[in-house]
Write a structure and sequence with these properties.
Elements: E1 2-10, H1 14-24, H2 29-35, H3 42-59, E2 71-89, E3 95-111
Antiparallel strand pairs: 1-3, 2-3
Helix pairs in contact: 1-3
Length: 114
């Protein structure tokens, strides 16, 4: 059995979030929870919060008794979200487009023996 946590429309680009995901993919939840607060990237805080939510979801599933020490990050996926287009004044009276990229984050945790 596995538990899932989703954070949608996160205001950080998928590329920046993916860098942090590569560090914690496949690790034990306990190890990832120790590692993430000390990373300087802003995406680490977002992933830490989503991981805590996934662990909480796993512990509160009906009919399944998960042990928090035996949980592992089974899958962590970052998808592209919508792009917010903003405009800023450019040279010679022109307009420069700024793209604020959004992300969708999905974390799946399960027990080690599965």
């Amino acid at each position: 059995m596995e538990a899932v946590s989703r954070k949608r429309f996160v205001r950080i680009s998928p590329k920046k979030l993916q860098q942090v995901c590569e560090v914690v993919r496949g690790k034990d939840v306990e190890e990832a929870m120790r590692l993430l607060p000390f990373m300087k990237q802003r995406g680490a805080q977002i992933i830490h919060k989503a991981l805590k939510s996934a662990v909480s979801n796993a512990l509160n599933l009906e009919g399944v008794n998960f042990n928090e020490d035996s949980l592992v990050i089974k899958k962590i996926v970052v998808d592209k979200g919508p792009v917010l287009h903003r405009f800023r004044a450019g040279a010679l009276g022109r307009v420069k487009r700024i793209k604020h990229r959004l992300s969708h984050l999905t974390i799946t945790v399960s027990e080690k023996n599965e």
